[in-house]
Design a protein that fits this description.
Elements (H helix, E strand, L loop, with lengths): L13 H13 L4 H7 L3 H15 L5 H14 L3 H5 L3 H5 L4 H5 L12 H13 L9 H8 L4 H24 L4 H7 L3 H11 L1
Helix pairs in contact: 1-2, 4-8, 4-10, 8-10
């Protein structure tokens, strides 16, 4: 049971119903979290903003989905680690590729742009100064336009902040997520190898 309750059927506005239905159709954001957020006007605005960041823009949706999943695994967010965008799946993102995120730097399943974006997302999770260097931006400029870098930065910032909030809701624990998706256990093993 999450720490914040889901919206009750009699509380749902038409807009809330539409946003929940859209999340069920797309797979991300997860309908459970949308069912919490749409209880408030600010939550409705956030769901719309998140949908815009995730599905619109100039960067491919699948690239953003890879970054989102990578960041969720970095923070051990059980909820976010198991959510999958149905849109990304129809665009060709397969679970076998997601499973390679743990080896993104050496795996040949990622393009140079994907690898660079995933690296940026990973750096984003290392702390407040993780992406604050000339080298980070010089490396990104080799593969992305400045407009794409802005979008990637906004996406990672929103994923980081909202991800922390959503994780705290306890919609799904890391342990439960590992049962749903045993590949997440590889992330834990990699951490043990580094430690």
């Amino acid at each position: 049971m999450p720490r914040i309750r889901y919206i009750e059927e009699d509380e749902k506005t038409e807009e809330a119903k539409a946003l929940i239905a859209q999340s069920e159709e797309r797979g991300a954001p997860d309908p459970r979290v949308v069912s919490i957020m749409v209880r408030t006007k600010a939550g409705v605005a956030w769901v719309k903003y998140w949908n815009s960041l995730l599905y619109d823009g100039i960067l491919p949706h699948t690239l953003k989905e890879l970054c989102r999943i990578q960041m969720s695994m970095e923070t051990r967010c059980g909820y976010c680690s198991t959510v999958r965008s149905k849109v990304a799946k129809t665009e060709g993102l397969e679970e076998q590729k997601v499973a390679q995120l743990i080896n993104y730097q050496t795996s040949d399943v990622f393009s140079d742009r994907e690898r660079a974006a995933i690296h940026y997302a990973t750096l984003f999770k290392t702390g407040d100064d993780g992406v604050d260097s000339e080298k980070v931006y010089d490396d990104l400029r080799e593969l992305f336009s400045e407009e794409e870098i802005i979008e990637l930065g906004l996406f990672c910032a929103e994923t980081d902040g909202a991800g922390k909030l959503v994780r705290s809701f306890k919609v799904l624990s890391w342990e439960d997520a590992c049962e749903i998706n045993p590949l997440l256990l590889d992330v834990e093993e990699a951490d043990k190898d580094v430690a």
